[in-house]
Amino acid sequence: MSSTTARVAAARSRGEGSGPRRRGGGVRALYAGNARSVVVRGLVATRSTNWIVVLTGVVEPVFYLLSLGVGLGGYVTGVTDPAGHPISYAAFIAPALLAVSAMNGAVYDSTWNVFFKMHFGKLYQGMLATSLGPLDIALGEILLALLRGGVYGTIFLVVMTALGLNLSWTAVLALPALLLIAFGFASIGMAITSYLKTFQHMDWIQFVMLPMFLLSATFYPLTVYSEPIQWFIQAMPLWHGVELVRSLTTGAIGPMLLVHVAYYAVMVAIGMVFTTRRLRALFLD
Amino acid sequence: MSHALSRVNDVSEPVIHAAGLTKVYGDTVAVGGIDFDVPPGESFGLLGPNGAGKSTTMRMVGAVSTRTAGELSILGLDPDQHGPEIRAQLGVVPQQDNLDMELQARENLLVYGRYFGLPRRVIAQRADELLAFAQLEDKAKSKVDDLSGGMKRRLTIARALINDPRILLLDEPTTGLDPQARHILWDRLFRLKEQGTTLVLTTHYMDEAEQLCDRLVVVDKGRIMAEGSPSALIREHSTREVLEVRFGSDRNADAAKRIGAIAGLGERIEELPDRVLVYADNGEHALAAVIESGLEPVTSLVRRSSLEDVFLRLTGRSLIE
């Protein structure tokens, strides 16, 4: 054993083998340009098993909107759009619920679903034995989450229009905004999940998600908080998502939109880098 | 299936070349510098007990694990640099089935073909051919969960063939299957071998190695102990026949000593917990000599030497513990 160890050490220091020892052949080893096949796989699987999960994702935010927005909203006055114009309570929380549903769908797909496939289904192990690279898998899974988020969002936007809660034509842009929000959460969600080892760890995600859902200027304006807490909330991803969507559905367009978009672009990038790195370490050691 | 032979242009060029191949995890040396070459069309086996480093070797050959040191070339390419290209030409049957549980049997083949970026029409045609090859035509629409162990294994092999691979890697292909399912599987693998597919398989069953492998290496603790065809290995490292005698657990050790004292009996004696093995070119003569010496074995059996005996000789341990 020790002689082997010595040999290995010697081989390492000499850089034995074909040229200098380095890990992998760059991007080509990570990405085969075939994320589409992973999306196709997800659609085939959804067709045969998961459509009930898809359905509940549509119904949940509609219930929230009807009970809180339309029901409770009758007693609430004094809320404004991001530019300061007074609007109805339902029109205030509807875009927030839309952003939250994008977040929830993306997080569900990128955490529970991915965790199961990684640890029990051994799906990724099989995929990585083909010409697919880890980046194909990460991108494919995230695109699938976006596709679902897009369907949820479209249906909810239609409901909003029917209830007269879209106050501006810019509400159309809420759909691409939702996809960006979902992309950001899915990317980070998958990165975090790839580091988790047990089901118990998955609870941590819920532990972060619920307060973020309740406190990110979802149901009342940010101004109810003292200034330090406002700063904290504004550092959270969901606040940016809520404000982004709310600006678009109410037509309160301003330069802050660019900040929100940039925030999500950074989330996407960080998530993708870590997910790819982690999948590589896990399955291509 | 349009299989191999025609594609193999240069018979002398090995499809797998490993020299000083090493894998170290932390302080553990899983593979401690092994050398082997596999020419195209050969059926090559890695025989060894659990933990010998077979699976790790297979993962490195399958371009899903990077080597710590040494040389490795698959189809002339370095897996460190060309992982995806190499994997595109391999078929992999892992030790534990990793079929897609959310898909039906035929969908498993279709979707897997897409991972290789193959055109849909090609995949659909091959999927039907492979379902027939795996004798699963009537299970095309079954969920994976509803298939028996042997069927899952055959589906995994069919899936590994969807990209018409140049090398098929099989890690313990029949472990955990009942005898009948094993024989069906061996028959399928033998057909592939006849068609010229290069097979690389690991096993700890000597009968499997004897049936399927043209040539094999015996691996133990990350090292190659011997190499050759099954019959050559047996010739070289064992006698023609083996006499197995049992005296009951308490008396085996004592009996082994007394047998050892019989002049001219066999080449070698191995004392195992449950029996004594006498290696001799004529097992019946050895048995007669044992009985003549006054020993009374509870049971006795004369058989041909197997790879199990080779392994015992080389490592001093049984293959299955």
Structure write-up:
The complex is a heterodimer of chains A (285) and B (321). Chain A has one domain (32-283). The longest helix of chain A is centred in the first third of the chain and has 37 residues, at 35-71. In chain A, helix 3 (35-71) runs parallel beside helix 6, helix 4 packs antiparallel against helix 6 (134-162) and helix 7 runs antiparallel to helix 10. The relative contact order of chain A is 0.14. Mean pLDDT of chain A is 85; it is low at 1-24. Chain A is mainly alpha-helical and 285 residues long. Chain A is elongated. Chain A has helices spanning 2-14, 27-30, 35-71, 89-119, 123-128, 134-162, 174-193, 199-215, 227-235, 237-250, 256-283. Chain B is built from 11 helices and 13 strands. In chain B, 51% of the residues are buried. In chain B, 36% of the residues lie in helices and 25% in strands. Chain B has 2 domains: 4-234, Rossmann fold, CATH 3.40.50.300; 239-304, Alpha-Beta Plaits (2-Layer Sandwich), CATH 3.30.70.980. The two termini of chain B are 40 Å apart. Chain B has helices at residues 54-61, 79-87, 105-115, 120-133, 149-160, 179-194, 206-212, 230-237, 252-261, 283-292, 307-315; strands spanning 16-25, 28-38, 43-47, 69-74, 90-93, 167-171, 198-203, 215-220, 223-228, 241-246, 268-271, 276-280, 299-304. Chains A and B meet through helix 1, helix 3 and helix 5 of A and strand 1, strand 2, strand 4, helix 2 and helix 3 of B. Chain B: One of its GO terms (biological process) is response to antibiotic.
Radius of gyration of chain B: 22 Å
Q: Count of helical segments of chain B?
A: 11
Cα-to-Cα separation, first versus last residue of chain A: 22 Å
* Strand order of the biggest β-sheet of chain B: 5-6-7-3-8-9
Q: Portion of residues in helices of chain B?
A: 25-40%
Give the N-terminus to C-terminus distance of chain B in angstroms. Answer: 40 Å
**Overall number of structural domains of chain B:** 2
CATH topology (level 3) name of the largest domain in chain B? Rossmann fold
Helix/strand/pairing class of chain B, anyone? alpha/beta
Helix content of chain A: over 70%
Shape of chain A: elongated
Strand content of chain A: under 5%
- What is the residue-mean pLDDT of chain B, rounded to a whole number? 90
Oligomer: heterodimer
User: Which geometry of chain B do the CA atoms define?
Assistant: elongated
Decide which structural class fits the backbone of chain A: mainly alpha
- Beta-strand residue fraction of chain B: 15-25%
